[in-house]
Design a protein that fits this description.
The complex is a heterodimer. By secondary structure, chain A is α/β, with parallel strands linked by helices. In chain A, 32% of the residues lie in helices and 19% in strands. In chain A, helix 7 (144-152) crosses helix 8. The longest helix of chain A has 10 residues, at 90-99. By secondary structure, chain B is an alpha/beta fold. Chain B has 2 domains: 5-262, Aconitase, domain 3, CATH 3.30.499.10; 271-427, Aconitase, domain 3, CATH 3.30.499.10. In chain B, 32% of the residues lie in helices and 18% in strands. Chain B has helices at residues 5-13, 39-48, 73-88, 102-108, 140-149, 174-185, 200-204, 207-215, 231-238, 298-301, 304-314, 332-340, 343-350, 400-409, 421-427, and strands at 24-28, 31-35, 60-63, 93-95, 117-121, 134-137, 151-155, 159-165, 194-198, 224-226, 258-263, 270-272, 280-282, 293-296, 324-327, 353-354, 375-378, 394-397. In chain B, strands 4-3-2-5-6 form a 5-stranded parallel sheet, covered by helices on one side. In chain B, helix 11 crosses helix 13 (343-350) and helix 11 (304-314) runs parallel beside helix 14. Chain B is globular and about 55 Å long. The termini of chain B are far apart. The chains are: A alpha/beta, B alpha/beta. Chains A and B meet through helix 4, helix 5 and helix 8 of A and helix 2, helix 3 and helix 5 of B.
């Protein structure tokens, strides 16, 4: 799958309290959560101003902190098709894969992608292209099992397909 | 080749003789836990996939801890979903509002024991490593899968070892050792890793203070924090275990990715300034910082020993007139014990506010939210932007003695500034 979109750039250690503040965790409705995505981050106007298809690019340790799956859910339902970061915090990493939100670890790409750049991600090949600068980067490859979960659309879909003998 | 305690627990739970760092395993779980924020998502997922049975209702804990007693209608709805699910599936370890925070209750009541493999839909699940269990935080989908199957996929982590030599200085607690660790290695210094703590200073700590250390392993990015059981652990567990336990120890030739060795006697009480738990400074360099609120509680430092030390400082003193000091015992039994020991009297007489057990202000939930520009010193675990309230409020993290002393002086303070150690020794 190839994803193309405009970049919103964030720094290091974007924690889950910045992605979806706890004051909104009294609901688990994805649409409600998406209304407040990134509200306490360096781009508090993200939810309001981003367009469906825009891509999040961030530094180290994206999604650190809480185990709240509301964080990747709010990103996914805000129409963000992929998150590119230098590294992901462990629980966010699992949660994103488990709910079928594509994530890409591409440390070399992040420093050379600027806010507003146009970026293309080839998920199958693990390649990130900055269409604004014309540069290409290789993403870290995930183990096959994890790729299979992502491809199925998440852990539960994967388990369902596996039970039916399709995976 | 030798194995670490983490590797041994993972091997035993995946039916293998040995496991290696990086290996993907499917492990059987001894306990799956979720709370009022995370369980509703898991329950919805199970419903969506038409899964109507739980792998073992005796191996599930559901704890209403975050937004309860319900702070608004939406929170009440979330709690209701969990309550009805617990009833329907006859969940053995269901704790309604006021019973306390999961990470305090489960070790305290012997529901988690050494050698267990626990997953919890809460990042501070890593707390239980303090009694020698493998415990890690997961999200709601992982938990839903675990509730259905009793299993989880895990990547065997590399282990890092942190050894603290020597004796702790007065007023230095387990909290300071973990803040020191995070300050040294950074908030992603142990990303995906097992963090094993050992050494004389760790062995000298009570189980409660060890739980404070493993509680914050996640704040360095760790998959789990763990302290191998010793006589203190066995004594603690014997008094409360609800099931048999198994003691694991790391082999002498176990492999560690990194080993850090520190002199505990050189560490003084520490404060993590905003906006990262790694932004650590000694109290002595923090005394110019004035505060609006002091919070004593949370799964990190809301146990009886924490309240006792706070009471030692606050006894016969008054909270600074421009500060509100909020004390929240982390479980009902901690609350009850504090009441019996007269600690609640001490807090009330000092001018503190004492509340029913809840996670409350730690995550900016309720019971003590900060306004724009306000500053709080807290015994909790995170000081991210907006963590305790307004995005432009500030949280400083410290041990309960430092927080209590700061509440009295209205600025960050060393406990020695409020209570002289010699006076304490004479009076006790």
């Amino acid at each position: 799958m190839v994803i193309r979109g405009k970049v919103w750039k964030f720094g290091d250690n974007v924690d889950t309290d910045q992605i979806i503040p706890a004051r909104y965790l009294n609901t688990s409705d994805p649409k409600e959560l998406a209304k407040h995505v990134m509200e306490d981050s360096e781009h508090p106007d993200f939810a309001e101003k981003h367009h469906t298809g825009d891509i999040i690019v961030a530094g180290r340790n994206f999604g650190s902190g809480s185990s709240r799956e509301h964080a990747p859910i709010s990103i996914k339902y805000a129409g963000v098709p992929v998150v590119i970061a230098k590294s992901f915090a462990r629980i966010f990493f699992r949660n994103a894969i488990n709910i079928g939100l594509p994530i890409v670890e591409a440390p070399s790409a992040v420093d050379e992608i600027n806010h507003g750049d146009e970026v293309e991600v080839d998920l199958d090949k693990g390649i990130v292209r900055n269409l604004t600068t014309g540069k290409e980067y290789t993403a870290t490859k995930f183990p096959q099992e994890l790729q299979a979960i992502l491809k199925a659309g998440g852990l539960m879909e994967y388990a369902k397909q596996k039970l039916r003998g399709n995976a | 080749m030798g194995m670490t305690i983490t590797e041994k627990i993972l091997a035993d739970h995946s039916g293998k003789k040995e496991v290696y760092p990086g290996e993907l395993i499917t492990a059987k779980i001894d306990l799956a836990m979720a709370n009022d924020v995370t369980a509703p998502l898991s329950i919805k997922t199970l419903e969506k996939y038409g899964i109507d049975r739980i792998f073992d209702p005796e191996k599930v804990a559901l704890v209403l801890s975050h937004f309860v007693p319900a702070k608004d209608i939406k929170s009440a709805e979330q709690a209701k979903i969990v309550r009805e699910f617990a009833k329907k599936h006859k969940i053995k370890w269901f704790f309604p509002e006021g019973e306390g925070i999961e990470h305090t209750i489960l070790p305290e009541q012997g529901i988690v024991v050494p050698g267990d493999l626990v997953i919890g839909a809460d990042s501070h699940t890593c707390t239980y490593g303090g009694i020698g269990a493998f415990a890690t935080g997961v999200g709601s989908t992982d938990l839903a899968y675990a509730l259905a199957t009793g299993e989880i996929w895990l990547k065997v982590p590399h282990s890092m070892k942190f050894i603290f030599y020597g004796k702790l200085k007065p007023w230095v607690m387990g909290k300071d050792l973990i803040l020191h660790t995070i300050g040294q290695i950074g908030v992603d210094g142990a990303l995906y890793k097992a963090m094993e703590f050992d050494g004389e200073a760790i062995r000298d700590l009570s189980i409660e203070q060890r739980l404070t250390i493993t509680n914050m392993a996640i704040e360095a990015g760790g998959k789990n924090g763990i302290i191998a059981p010793d006589e203190k652990t066995i004594e603690y567990v014997s008094a409360r275990a609800k099931k048999p336990w198994k003691i694991y120890q790391s082999d002498a030739d176990a492999q560690y990715l990194e080993v850090y060795e520190w002199d505990a006697d050189k560490i003084e009480p520490l404060v993590a300034w905003p906006y990262l738990p790694s932004n650590v400074h000694p109290v002595s360099e923090s005394t110019h910082i004035t505060i609006d609120q002091a919070f004593i509680g949370s799964c990190t430092n809301g146990r009886i020993e924490d309240l006792r030390i706070a009471a030692t400082i606050l006894k016969g003193k008054k909270v600074h007139p421009y500060v509100r000091c909020i004390v929240i015992p982390a479980s009902k039994s901690v609350y009850h014990q504090a009441l019996r020991e007269g600690l609640i009297d001490i807090f009330l007489e000092a001018g503190c506010v004492v509340s029913v057990s809840t996670c409350g202000p730690c995550l900016g939930g309720h019971m003590g939210i900060l306004a724009e520009g306000e500053r709080c010193i807290s015994t909790s675990n995170r000081n991210f932007p907006g963590r305790m309230g307004h995005p432009k409020s500030e949280a400083y993290l410290a041990n309960p003695a430092v927080v209590a002393a700061s509440a009295v002086l209205g600025r960050i303070a060393h406990p020695e500034e409020v209570v002289k150690l010699e006076e304490l020794e004479v009076s006790t």
